[in-house]
Amino acid sequence: MRSKFTKLGLDYDAKIIANLTGWIDADATLNLDLYIRQLITSSRTTVTVKYRVEDSLKYLTLLNYDIDTCKTLKELMQAGLVKVWFRNIRKYGNLSANCPIKPGYYNLRNLQLDSSSIPVFLRTGDYRIRVFNYNGNAKPNANQNPELYSHNKAKMRRGVTCITVDMKLY
């Protein structure tokens, strides 16, 4: 199966990220420029994959992963779908291979999904992938009131970057 990127949306916290720009080339490959302003000592990533319902504007969530980014980078050579995606992405740029993630310039050039990184259970169609990188706890620690956590969950997750990509599998 092949893929092509069709749309890109970017958002970032200007206190942590000095610049995040991106574009899709005529050959439907993805490019990103990222300049990190300050040291990132810990990070989590939520990856959401949605499938667009045929003849509709609605998307259904197929996969939703929340991972410890630093731990995943450390274990990059092990198996797992998210790790396969990380390895594929790192081939196209100079993204950090470990934590802490140092301030500096990072990029991706001509990113395309390798057919081996596309799960066999996905069918042809339109997809939306959202990659939300944040600082904060995914779960309350032992000293936090779980009730308080559930009401303030969004406040505990300080967004660093959010990259949303629409793509077509064919």
Automatic annotation (TrEMBL):
PANTHER family: DAEDALUS ON 3-RELATED (PTHR20898:SF0), DAEDALUS ON 3-RELATED-RELATED (PTHR20898)
Protein name in UniProt: Uncharacterized protein
Chain segments annotated as coiled-coil in the UniProt record: none
Keywords: Signal
InterPro entries xref list: DUF1091, GM2-AP_sf
A Pfam family this chain is assigned to: DUF1091
